[in-house]
Design brief:
Radius of gyration: 17 Å
Structural class: mainly alpha
Mean pLDDT: 84
Low-confidence stretches: 188-197
Order of helices and strands: HHHHHHHHHH
Amino acid sequence: LKDQILKNFQRSIIAGQIAKKGGFFGSEKLQVSAVLFGFGEYLVTACAPNAAQQIREIKARHGISMDRASKTAIGISYKDLGILVAEQWNMPKTVTESMKTIGNFQVKKSDLAPEDFLPFVCAFSDELTELSPEGEDGTVNGKELKKIWRRYRHLFDIEPEILEDILVASRDQVGKQASLLNISPKRLKKAPAPCLK
């Protein structure tokens, strides 16, 4: 849960910077959408930790996405679960729309209304938070970073070097905020015993 909270916070920071530097002005909707993008995974981690652990093991064993692994283990993808609960809680449509899987990466920037960018900003930010830092300076694998950048470069005019700066700065900011909350930003090496059966 700690890792989930910090990841959600980092995703929100990155989304705000991508929106600002990419020519799409952020808003409260963007921040909320970025935080709740991983809502389904958070729910399972909180309410069914054993299932969450099983999903991580399936993902690692078969090299598949977290959504495919969750669908295999619990019959519904994390994304669909998050959307389902968010809709039942009457969250704004912009938030639930931003959680959906992007089906068309070839869409033109000129064809998108401002709110249509939300799913792309959130998905872009989420992929970036998955990049693990390398070395003490927190830099990332340039090859992996460029692979993600190529999918979104036609929508956001941001060079890979700027993205790396955003990533490093976001990790620093997460670390500072975590210290204020007395939470260690380091990932747990071993999962604690689940509090729920």
